[in-house]
């Protein structure tokens, strides 16, 4: 009987220890500024599935209040990208254009569904708002940007 109790306790302990690392990988994403030198405007990002699941569609609900630039219909865009720890792209960035205009200081909201690539244990998720009129010399002229902080 003592051996059975010992084996049961050992089995329960093993299951608990093995499950602990997986709980850390499933924590919700926390977003913060993309760049510490030029903060720009911050965005509020809510995910449909938090954290995102590999190779599933993910709903992004992005809102905020831009303080320097207007949103121009069919010109201002939402940018979403997934990168690995080494900075390599996990898939091509997703770009969705705003279907309405709004002036500086007015709140905005955009909801988009994009496919999630196959995700490694650690990755960087970047969500930004940009407009080519902001700086035509830049490939991705962002004036509002956030990135996740939880996975590195």
List keywords for this structure.
152 residues; Immunoglobulin-like; five-stranded antiparallel sheet; three-stranded antiparallel sheet; 8 strands; signal
Structure description:
With 152 residues, the protein is an alpha+beta fold. It has a single domain, classed as Immunoglobulin-like (Sandwich). Helices cover 16% and strands 34% of the residues. The chain is built from 1 helix and 8 strands. The chain has one helix at 2-25, and strands spanning 31-33, 44-47, 57-65, 77-84, 94-97, 107-115, 123-130, 142-148. The chain has a 5-stranded antiparallel beta sheet, with no helix packed on it. It is elongated and about 75 Å long. The chain starts with a helix and ends with a strand.
At the fold tier of CATH, the topology name is Immunoglobulin-like
Roughly what percent helix?
A: 10-25%
Total helical elements: 1
The SSE order reads: HEEEEEEEE
Question: Strand order of the main beta sheet, please?
Answer: 1-8-7-4-5
Characterize the overall form: elongated
**Beta strand %:** 25-35%
* Beta strands, count: 8
SS-based structural class?
Answer: alpha+beta
């Amino acid at each position: 009987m003592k051996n059975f109790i010992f084996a049961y306790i050992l089995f329960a302990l093993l299951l608990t220890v093995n499950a602990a690392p997986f709980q850390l990988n499933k924590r919700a994403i926390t977003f913060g500024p993309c760049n510490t030198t030029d903060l720009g405007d911050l965005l509020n990002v809510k995910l449909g599935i938090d954290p995102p699941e590999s190779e599933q569609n993910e709903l992004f609900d992005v809102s905020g209040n831009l303080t320097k630039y207007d949103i121009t219909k069919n010109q201002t865009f939402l940018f979403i990208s997934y990168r690995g720890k080494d900075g390599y792209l996990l898939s091509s960035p997703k770009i969705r254009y705003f279907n309405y205009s709004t002036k500086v200081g007015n709140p905005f909201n955009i909801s988009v569904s994009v496919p999630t690539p196959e995700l490694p244990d650690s990755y960087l998720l970047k969500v930004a708002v940009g407009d080519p009129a902001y700086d035509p010399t830049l490939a991705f002229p962002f004036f509002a940007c956030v990135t996740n902080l939880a996975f590195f």
